[in-house]
Amino acid sequence: MTADDLRGRLARRLTGIAGRDVAVEGLRRLTAGASRETWSFTAADADARRDLVLRRDPPGADRPDGMALEAAAIAAAAAAGVAVPPLVDSGSDPATVGSPYLVTAHVAGETLGPRILREERYAQARAGLAAELGRTLARIHAVPLDAVPGLPHADPVEDLRTTCDALGEPLPTVEIALRWLDRHRPAPVPDALVHGDFRLGNLIVDETGLAAVLDWELVHRGDPREDLGWLCVKCWRFGSPLPVAGVGTVDELLDGYAEVAGERPDPDAVRWWQVHRTTWWALACREMAGRHLSGVTPSVELAAIGRRVAENEHDLLLLLGVPAEAAPAAEAPRSDLHGRPSAADLVDAVTAFLREDVVAADDERLAYLARVAANVLGGVGRELRLGPEHERRHRERLAALGHADQAGLAAAIRAGEIDDTDPALLAAVRAAVTDKLAVANPRYLEQPS
C-alpha cells in the first residue's frame, strides 16, 4: 500500500466518523517503532484541524487481538487518570487502513531518550522525572483488571524458556540468567495491569515533565514490579549512570510510587525484574531479527536489532556480578589475494557514504534508516577484521569446557550438567560476550554499569 492509498483510506474513515468531509494532510511515517508502523498527519475539515497519530500493524503481520487490547488499555488508563494520548479511533478490519490500527491525538513533546537526557530545555523535567514515573506506574497498576478484558498472563520464567526454545538459537548467557531467576524468585504480590514497555522511547516528555504514556501493545496481567524493573534496564539509560531511565535513583522511583500506591515495592524484587527484563529483551531482539531473516518483514532496522543481543548479554553478566573486561585487539592478517581495497575497505567506504550523504536526505525516515544501515556496516567491517581471531578463541573456550558449540554448552547449563556459577564457565561466557560486543557495539563496553 502506498502513502497515497493510506491517505485516502484514512480520509474516508475519518469522514465516516465525523459525518462531514475530512481531508488528511502531511501524512508521513515516523522513525519510531520496530514492531508497528507510526504515522503522523493532520485531519482538516471545514471547522477545525487536528494533529493525529496512526499506529498500525505492518500489513501482512496483523495482530488484531493485540491492537484491540491496546486500545482498551489506553481507554482504561485515561479513565484512571494516567496521561495518555486521547484515543480517536481503532479497528481490526484490514480493509480500513490495511491492517489493525488505532488513531490518537498528537501530544506535543519529545520521545527520544538521548534528547530528553541531554538537552537543556528538559532539565526541569529531568529533576523530578523518576518520582513522577513512579507515581504514574502506581496509577497504571491501580487500573481495575476487569476494565481490560482478555489480558494475557504467563509464568515469567517459563515464558522466557518457551521464547528461547522457539528461537532455536540457545545462548549460554540466557541459560545462566534463567537458572538465577528460578533460584531467586521474589515473594508473590497480587496481579495488576502491567504496561509491559514503560521506558524512555515510549514516554512523551515536555519541558515540565511527563506528558503521555505511549505504546501499550505489551499490556498484560502480572507482577506490577515488572514495569519498575524494566524502567531500570541499562540499555534504556542511553549512557547515563543514573539507574532509573537515566534520570534518577531507585529510591526516587519507589518513593514516588509509594506516594500513590501507599506502599513501597521491595527493591530486591525490582532488581529481580531488571534481570528478567534484560533477559527478555535479549530474546526479543533476536525474535525481531527473526522476522527479517524469515522474510516476513524485510527490514534493515530489524536486522540491526539482532546484534543488540550482545548488549543485553553484557548487561546480564553485570547484573549477575560478572564484571566487564576490555576487548583484546585481534585484527586478522590481510590477504593479498583480492588486493586493495579489501572487503573491509569497501565496507568502510559504503558506511561513510551512508553517514555523510544519505543521512542528509530530506526524508526523515530514509535518513534514520541510513544511520541504521551505516551502523550495521560498521559492525560488518569490524567482524571482517576481528572475526577470524574471535572465532579461534571461541572454539578454544568451548573445547576447554568440553563442548563443540554454543548450543551444546547452553543445553548443559539448562540440564544442570555444568554449574552455572562455575568461575571457569562465567569467565568463558564473559569473554565470548566481550568479543561479540567488540563487533556489534564496542562503545557499549564503555558505558556506566
UniProtKB/TrEMBL annotation:
The lineage of its organism: Bacteria, Bacillati, Actinomycetota, Actinomycetes, Pseudonocardiales. This is Phosphotransferase family protein. SUPFAM superfamilies: Protein kinase-like (PK-like). The keyword Transferase applies. Residues 27-273 form the Aminoglycoside phosphotransferase domain. It comes from Actinomycetospora rhizophila. Residues 363-444 form the DUF6285 domain. It comes from the Bacteria. Pfam families: APH (PF01636), DUF6285 (PF19802). Keywords: Transferase. One of its GO terms (molecular function) is transferase activity. The keyword Transferase applies. Its EC number is 2.7.-.-.
